[in-house]
Input
Amino acid sequence: MAKRDPPPEMAIDMTPMIDMTFQLIAFFMILINFADTEQSEKVQLPSSALAKPPDAPLETPITIQIGFDRAKNGTKLSQEKAIIAAQEFGSPDALKPMLNNEKYVLENRHKSINDANIIIRADADTRTGFVQNVIRVCQEVGFEKFTLRAKAKD
Output
């Protein structure tokens, strides 16, 4: 009887499995953070007893944030600035090209400008006149629906 050779050892290459695991982790990290992308640390919302969450998600939201550059102790370092799509504008009139771009995107998606809802997240220290000017500029472009955000009082 001939002596048998031991069976060869089986080695499994774990590299593709580890690679796939890291890709899934990265995918879920990006997916989970989408809810916070429309919020800026430059905006500290005012408190309101009337603030309540929306009944249903808005179909076509366009978020404009109005805030300040702040020091670590919370003091304002700059004048109000409007922020839309991570771009900062020092005056409401400077928003017009960006709003016209949003209008163009809506038209390409076969949606009406009346379907869009402008969400304004203004810092608690923002002057009312600045917010009114942002609304005026939006109306000049053709937007008609507005939602103001505040945080609920504790």
